[in-house]
Amino acid sequence: MKTTIHLKVDPEIKIRAAALAERLGLSLSTVVNASLRSFVQTETFSVSASEPMTPYMENWIGEIENDIAADKNIIGPFQDAAAMDKALKKYLKKK
């Protein structure tokens, strides 16, 4: 059975939190429940707001993914640091 908690929060925080939850497809109640559950389970509290990727970063990651798919501009994996140094020196001589 669920219970009700009455909280006093700054009105602006409530508006912004509800808008963010909605953008993520969640209710504010779900966010509060998940936060409390995590708080109890981990006995820690942390907050984060990540920024969306810029178009430049999205394009750069797309280029990297294309290189990986084409096995282009890829060196490694290496068994040890000496093997990495040898491969990188060989690669740099080509340029």
Overview of the molecule:
The N and C termini lie far apart (68 Å). With 95 residues, the chain is mainly α. The longest helix has 15 residues.
Brief summary:
60% of the residues lie in helices and 0% in strands. The protein is mostly helical and 95 residues long.
Q: Which features would summarize this protein structure in a list?
A:
4 helices; 95 residues; 60% helix; mainly alpha
Task: Give the secondary structure arrangement, pairings included.
Elements: H1 11-23, H2 28-42, H3 55-69, H4 81-94
Order of helices and strands: HHHH
Q: What does the main sheet amount to?
A: none
Helix coverage percent of residues?
55-70%
Find the count of extended strands (DSSP E, 2+ residues). 0
Low-confidence stretches: none
Q: Helical region count?
A: 4
